[in-house]
Design a protein that fits this description.
The protein is mainly α and 325 residues long. 78% of the residues lie in helices and 2% in strands. It is built from 12 helices and 2 strands; from the N terminus they run H-H-H-H-H-H-H-H-E-E-H-H-H-H.
């Protein structure tokens, strides 16, 4: 009976996700057009020209390093789901889903649909893909908390100046962030039965997987903040830890609002906390490097994989778990 339900659910997902993938591609293309149309060619050229080539190149390397870290999210997640896969497959699914999902917003739905499209053809069922999405989401949260906690505790005066909060509140928030991460590790080490959260049950990862999360999560955001810092430092005197604090706040706001690509949210928060008019050009460059360049690569890769798969797919039904090899 359980197997029948799993097959029915998988069949429904396989019928639904192609349409969702098409909608995601169309929306991604529209967002790319809308973002580009928001700037004149002169603005784009002037903004890029204001950034020294060395900083521009380094920002590109740091953005690439962030997306490399994100493939590590998925590499750990498929192990958590009990279905480890070759890294080349994990890297493909991760980059395509996140390069598009970062720009669309509602990451659990947009990047989740693309992840399901890839992982289901490699043998995963809906429940296993859901575990991958949940694990990656937890890694994002852990990364933000660790980076925020470190920035607030290491430079409380700077964080106080940026946020306007009193120093005890800044230190309290920083300590709380790191305390929650420590509690997560303790739960991973001591709790082996699934945790019941209402109707949902949550299986804690093993300690090695949890440690992997707390290493690669903040490392990813450290690279993103460093990418932003390279563009901002070209036009303004800003400290890296200050940019980290601002980016964590901006990224949290973007996650809460689910605005596609944090469009306008990240810029507004950065301009509010670092009120220097000349940094808008640097923000334009950061958006192009970290969001739009990956998007312009992820969309055609997704379209190509879909076309290639359709060309190889046999006429007969392969069942609930196609392409296991």
């Amino acid at each position: 009976m359980i197997r029948h339900d799993a097959r029915a659910e998988s069949s429904l997902m396989r019928r639904f996700t192609p349409l969702l993938v098409i909608l995601v591609l169309l929306l991604a293309g529209f967002l790319l057009y809308r973002t580009l149309s928001g700037y004149s060619l002169d603005q784009i050229v002037t903004s890029v020209a204001a950034i020294p080539p060395v900083r521009l190149a380094l920002a590109g390397v740091l953005a690439a390093a962030s997306y490399l870290c994100l493939t590590g999210f998925d590499a750990l997640a498929v192990r958590y789901a009990g279905r480890p896969l070759p890294y080349r497959r994990v890297a493909l699914a991760s980059f395509v889903s996140l390069s598009i999902g970062h720009n669309i917003g509602f990451a659990a739905l947009s990047s989740g649909a693309i992840r399901y499209r890839f992982y289901s053809r490699w043998g995963m069922g809906p429940g296993e893909v859901a575990k991958v999405i949940l694990f990656c989401g937890a890694t994002v949260g852990l990364g933000l908390m660790i980076l925020a906690g470190a920035a607030l505790l290491l430079r409380p005066a700077l964080a106080q100046e940026i946020t306007g909060l009193q120093q005890p509140i800044v230190l309290g928030i920083g300590a709380t962030c790191l305390g929650l991460v420590a509690a997560y590790i303790v739960l991973a080490a001591t709790v082996r039965r699934p945790l019941q959260l209402g109707k949902w049950s949550l299986q804690m990862p093993t300690v090695p997987l949890a440690l992997g999360q707390i290493i690669i999560g903040p490392l990813n955001f450290a690279f993103v903040a460093a990418c932003l810092h390279q563009t901002l430092a070209a036009v303004a005197d800003v400290a890296y830890l200050g940019v980290v604090s601002v980016y964590v706040i901006a990224n949290a706001a973007a996650l809460i609002t689910h605005v596609p690509g944090g469009l306008g949210v990240i810029e507004s928060v950065v301009l509010l906390l670092l009120p220097q008019a000349e940094i808008i050009g640097a923000l334009v460059v950061f958006r192009f490097i970290y969001f739009l360049v990956p998007l312009s690569l992820g969309c055609p890769i997704l379209a190509l994989t879909e076309l290639t798969r359709r060309g190889r797919k046999p006429a007969r039904d392969r069942g609930a778990y196609p392409e296991r090899n």
